[in-house]
Amino acid sequence: MKVVILAGGLGTRLSEETKVIPKPMVEIGGKPILWHIMKIYSHYGFNEFIICLGYKGYMIKEYFANYFLHRSDVTIDVCSNKVTIHNNNCEPWKVTLVDTGTETMTGGRVKRVRQYIGNETFMMTYGDGVGDVNIKELVDFHKKNKKLATVTVVTPVSRWGSVSISNNNEVLSFIEKPAENDSWINGGFFVLEPEVIDYIKDDSIPFEREPMETISKKQQLVAYKHKGFWKPMDTLRERNELDAMCQSNNAPWMVWGKDEQCKIK
Hey, which bits of the chain come out as E strands? Predict the structure, then answer.
């Protein structure tokens, strides 16, 4: 099953980083967040990716074009330009990189890669969020429900602390970042049937609006409730929080284990 990753947005709320590089290439733990997302899927045996490029997409192309060299031990004879590979540490990934436009909305990006998806069930997620989602269970859930689309929903964490106060103003409990248990939000990590693309009219359509709303009205959209870790990287603060978790070896989304350590800066 192929995995489509939306990696073409401007990332304006993370402008401190995205003035120079595209948002999916912003590093946490010394690796682009895009790499972390791909490792999650790869851990469950999904190694074929279609990456929808847009803003500064050429940098993502260059990253993967040089990936083999950067991940291998090599001897380079500079006189003869001969390269000898000693040790290959690359993942078994097949990556299709598609320029889907700088102004294209999320739905339009999916529509533009239809020829690479084919007529098979596929997965899709955003290039700026990580979680310890069990991809195998997600796929099994989708197959069991036999609907056109499955979206992973998550409980957001409040930015503000929660304080419980007694009648005499004593603080009974304090939670720095409580979960907002009464609500669920779109966490990405979709499983989709190819027919879903028929609901996307053109480049101007956000995937989360008309296509998903129409499919929902047809009772063809189900929610996979993920109660574990999930976090987006929309701001510099969130990027720093993810990086700190990685540096302290407390990164719940790194479900692939200790074979890849975060780079200590």
Answer: 3-7, 27-28, 31-32, 48-53, 72-77, 82-88, 94-99, 122-126, 129-131, 149-154, 162-165, 171-175, 185-186, 190-192, 221-226, 230-232
Domains in the chain, please, with CATH? 3-153+186-259 (3.90.550.10)
The span from the CA of 111 to the CA of 198, in Å, is: 8
Contact 210, 108 (CB under 8 A): no
The two three-digit tokens of residue 3, written as one number: 């995995």
> What single-letter DSSP state applies at residue 101?
-
Q: How far is CA 228 from CA 65, 88, 108, 182, 238, in A?
A: 34, 33, 30, 16, 18
Say whether pLDDT at 77 is over 80.
yes
Q: Please state the length of the chain.
A: 265
Query: Distance between CA 245 and CA 56 in Å, rounded?
Result: 27
Predicted TM-score of the model (pTM): 0.87
Tens digits of residue pLDDT in 170-201: 444 444 555 556 678 899 999 999 999 999 99
Q: Are 26 and 72 in contact (CB under 8 A)?
A: no
Query: How much is the CA Rg of the chain, to the nearest whole Å?
Result: 20
What pLDDT shows up at residue 87?
81
Half-sphere exposure of 22 (CA within 13 A, CB side): 23
Task: Please enumerate in sequence order all residues whose Cβ is within 8 A of that of 180, keeping only pairs 6 or more positions apart, or say none.
Answer: 155, 156, 157, 158
CB atoms within 10 A of CB 36: 24
Q: How many angstroms separate the Cα of 30 from the Cα of each of 7, 110, 186, 247?
A: 19, 29, 27, 9
Distance, in Å, from the CA atom of 70 to the CA atom of 264, rounded to the nearest integer, reads 18
Q: Which residues contact 258 (CB under 8 A, 6 or more apart)?
A: none
